[in-house]
Amino acid sequence: MTSFTVNGMPLHYKLDMHTPLLWALRDASNLTGTKYGCGTGQCGACTVHIDGVAQRSCQVPIGSIEGTFVTTIEGLSGDRSHPVQQAWAEENVPQCGYCQSGMIMAAAALLAKVKDPTDDEIDQAITNLCRCGTYPRVRRAIHAAAR
Length: 147
Ligand code: FES
What we know:
The N and C termini lie far apart (43 Å). The chain is built from five helices and five strands. The chain folds into two domains: 2-74, Beta-grasp domain (Ubiquitin-like (UB roll)), CATH 3.10.20; 83-146, DNA polymerase, domain 1 (Orthogonal Bundle), CATH 1.10.150. The protein has a five-stranded mixed sheet with strand order 2-1-5-3-4, with helices on both faces. The model has no long low-confidence stretch (mean pLDDT 97). The radius of gyration is 15 Å and the shape is globular. A hairpin with a 2-residue loop joins strand 3 and strand 4 (53-56). The chain is an alpha+beta fold. The longest helix is centred in the last third of the chain and has 14 residues, at 100-113. The chain has helices at 21-28, 83-90, 100-113, 119-125, 135-146; strands at residues 2-6, 9-13, 47-50, 53-56, 69-71. FE2/S2 (inorganic) cluster binds at residues 36-39, 41-46, 56, 58.
């Protein structure tokens, strides 16, 4: 068994320690906002925060994160939308939307670390893939959220 906190709730998982966090979240905890894209750490659709750092949950065995604090898209905001989510809505960022929860989690982690990132800092930090090509709107929304 391994235990860690997800969106403020202490959880205990009786799963194989090698189970990727992505599947523990989606299948055992029904937190389906975290998406499966590639399963190989390339696309970023599965991005969550572990102790505040953006991580690709398909690459994180649950046995390696005992005692950590995990935040998923469902836990990013409290009663009101997170500023990144507000900016995403204002800039109409999503097209199909599939990759966007991972994008938002990556953006929120960046802004928690760098208050007003440059375009270069955004491009280096947000390596998530979007097949709809929403990258220019993602960048605009991050600048808007930084204001
Ligand atoms: Fe994890 Fe693509 S599903 S990086």
